[in-house]
Amino acid sequence: MSLEKEPPAVHAYNLIEKVLFQPTHFNRKKLQQELSGKTILITGASSGIGEQVAYMLKDLPVHLILVARREENLRYIKNEIEKAEAAVTIYKADLRIDDDLNVVVQLIRALPEGLDVVISNAGLSINRSIHQSLDRVHDFTRTMAINYFAPVKLLLALIPLLEKSQGQIVNVSTINSLLIPIPNWAAYQASKTAFDTWFRSVAIELKASCVDTTSIYLPLVKTDMIRPTAAYDRMPAMCPNHVAEIICKSLYTKRKKYRPWWLLFGQLASIVCRGGLERVMTKVNERKGDPRAGS
Fold this sequence. Notes:
Oligomer: single chain
Number of domains: 1
Low-confidence stretches: none
Number of strands: 7
Distance between the termini: 37 Å
Order of helices and strands: HHEHEHEHEHEHEHEHH
Strand order of the largest sheet: 3-2-1-4-5-6-7
Shape: globular
Mean pLDDT: 92
Strand content: 5-15%
Radius of gyration: 19 Å
CATH class: Alpha Beta
CATH superfamily: NAD(P)-binding Rossmann-like Domain
């Protein structure tokens, strides 16, 4: 099997992006002190954010467990990381499939060193009008399967291990979970909001068991997930490397949540100006024409 893969590109910020996405002051020494000797599970690790987090941890004496569907990408990443310090175990798995998920759980439970950190990153995004979805109920079931049911099932199985190690769970979420819903994103927003609500609900219980939880609320990120939507090429987006720094920083600060500085204003507008925003979105949507005429 070939181990050739495109290296992850670094997205250079323009002026607007530099303002929107403030730099992260990242302390590698503190990260090493916190993680040395620990076992870290990263889902959705074959590209994008998950891949970048794995590379950021490669020089530490840690055991990385990388889970994703693309085995060839995982093998390449494992080969690159093991040139450095970290040990790597890869599992090819589609977490929407119970048999795959159960195999991953069994293998992790069998690890003699246990489990210290879960970075829940695997996800699926769909941008489609409701009129184009009338005969595509599978869009909703498969999105809920990976964005909600899979991480719930995985964490329910692994929480006892995290309680034993007094570990941490990091959920890679979206700012859409905290803002007014927008058209064409019903499947994605519903599934991500469902898990965000579940995660914040159990966080209080987990804290009582000495398990830390962190929610990372992200805007657009320059990954494979957004490439199919051409309009996003012109919109501000975060660099996956920057996001990886934010996630890794949360592993030693134990900060409960990260959100862009401007998200608070968006949340306020979503409440105070909800009616006006909905009217604006309705007019914009009407100008696009009849969505049923599309494919």
